[in-house]
Amino acid sequence: MIEFTLWDIVRNLLLALRWTVALSAIAFIGGGLVGGLLLTLRLGLGNGTRRAIGWYVQLFQGTPLLMQLFLAYFGLALLGLEVSAWTAAALALTLYTSAYLVEIWRGCVDAVPKGQWEAARSLAMSFGEQLRHVILPQAVKLAIAPTVGFLVQVIKGTALASVIGFIELTKAGSMIANASFKPFLVFGCVALLYFALCFPISLYAQHLEGKLHAR
Amino acid sequence: MISFDFMAVLAEWPLLLKGLAWTLGLTLIATPLGLIIATLGAWSRASGPVWLRRVLGAYVELLRNTPFIVQLFFVFFGLPALGVKLSPEAASLIAMTLNLGAYGTEILRAGIQATPRGQWEAAQSLALSPVQVFLRVVLPPAFQRVWPAMTSQIIIVMLGSAVCGQISTEELSYAANLIQSRNFRAFEAFIIATLCYLALSIAARHLLMWAGPRFIFGRRSS
After folding, report:
1. In the 3-class helix/strand/coil scheme, how is chain A assigned residue by residue?
2. Could you give all domains of chain A from N- to C-terminal order, each with its CATH number?
3. How confident is the model at residue B221, as a pLDDT?
4. What share of chain B is helix, strand, coil (3-state, %, to 5)?
5. Mean pLDDT of B97-108
6. Do the chains contact at B81 and A65, CB–CB below 8 Å?
7. Alpha-carbon gap: B131 to the closest alpha carbon of chain A (Å)
8. What is the pLDDT of residues A145-181, one digit of tens each?
9. Residue A78 reports pLDDT greater than 90
10. Helix axes of B139-160 and B13-47: crossing angle, nearest 10 degrees
11. Contact A66 B162 (CB under 8 A)
């Protein structure tokens, strides 16, 4: 029987933390790209697209992330693809993130006064130019704080990937807890590591929001 | 060619119904308990002693910056080491309640902060006790102001309860897992469970937006 010292536990958890960070980064960047694409489509195309994207958002916000992970895992397998927990988790978390980000960013674009669109159009700017030179610079300022805040949700969301067998912080914690018979200590450490990762980001988001309101 | 067999899953409807009942039941109990914690927490953060504010601040930040699944595992696997043995259902309920309590405290605090100071003072000058001032003057408009955010949070907790199946609480996602282990129709089972969750969250939003003004913060004419 192997004895686990506190350092053994922390060291193994820290090694697993890499995968939590990697998965969060993939989901956040991928979700940002898909979300940006959806937002552009929503602004550029008609009411049909708007409604379709509304349903997309409702679908991801109205169902558990855990179910989305299971569906990605078994759905990809159904298509005959060789799926690893990596692929399924990255896909589900990317789509999940995109649904939230498109909704956050839509609110920011809507907050830019309508007169700005009209003024840009009256300067004979094309749709792309209106967006790039007039609307986005203003919307991005509003969007930064809630987007950073949402990163915390993404990091916490990656913990669910443990359920489909992706070995990140939570899964490593479960395995070490089973092997060491010290669940209180191990899950306490797991929680503290998540806290160490998320709390600074939360504080930074609050700080950004404070700056925005102060202006 | 991919073929679907949803009937094989629907044939297990008693399991699905039981899962739905557990998900609903856990949410129905955790919601009022969480709102009570939120109310006590928000009151203490607004007018409690400094040490209590610090403790509550730590509670709120700790719960908001760690994943629900880790909180659940800590309660279910971790606490027995301290001699607190819990059934899966009790552990799920405790984790859900504490989670909603933490988010609710923060949401309600924002609502209370938006109450003009003059209203506290006006109520005090009418010789109302501090508890009366809080319950009758400060709390109702605060709840009214933040009710949409609180509704979203309650729904997030309900959807989050899908994780409770991992410690063998027999809620909806557990039922879906059980069904797919019997008939190997995994995709269909999870599609149906997901649609059930979607229906639950839409229904819950309508119900809460309807119930809030009637039972929680009331029309304050009487």
Report:
1. CCCCCHHHHHHHHHHHHHHHHHHHHHHHHHHHHHHHHHHHHHHHCCHHHHHHHHHHHHHHHCCCHHHHHHHHHHHHHHCCCCCCHHHHHHHHHHHHHHHHHHHHHHHHHHCCCHHHHHHHHHCCCCHHHHHHHHHHHHHHHHHHHHHHHHHHHHHHHHHHHHHHCCCCHHHHHHHHHHHHCCHHHHHHHHHHHHHHHHHHHHHHHHHHHHHHHHC
2. 36-210 (1.10.3720.10)
3. 44
4. 85, 0, 15
5. 95
6. no
7. 31
8. 999 999 999 999 999 999 998 999 999 999 999 888 8
9. no
10. 140
11. yes
Angle separating helix axes B186-211 and B13-47, nearest 10 degrees: 40
User: Which residue type is seen at A190?
Assistant: V
Please list, in sequence order, all residues whose beta carbon lies within 8 angstroms of the beta carbon of residue B140, skipping any fewer than 6 positions away. Answer: B217, B218, B220
Buried b (16+ CB within 10 A) or exposed e, A148-175: bbbbbebbbbbbbbbbbebbbbbbbbbe
Per-residue exposure over A35-72, b if at least 16 CB sit within 10 Å of its own CB, e if not: beebbeebbeeeeeeeeebeebbeebbbbbbbbbbbbb
Taking the CA of residue B175 and the nearest CA in chain A, the distance in Å comes to 12
**Lowest mean pLDDT across A25-39, B71-85, B117-131:** B117-131
Nearest Cα residue to B221 out of B150, B140, B113: B140
Cβ–Cβ below 8 Å for A62 and B191: no
DSSP B55-81: HHHHHHHHHHTS-HHHHHHIIIIIGGG
pLDDT at B222: 39
- Read off the pLDDT band of B182 (50, 70, 90): confident
Q: Are B197 and B117 in contact (CB under 8 A)?
A: no
pLDDT band at A215 (very low <50, low <70, confident <90, very high): low
Entry pTM: 0.91
In the DSSP assignment, the letter for residue B222 is -
Cβ atoms of A146 and A100 within 8 Å: the answer is no
- Interchain proximity B163–A66, CB inside 8 Å: yes
Closest CA relative to residue B68, chosen from B111, B34, B18, B25: B34
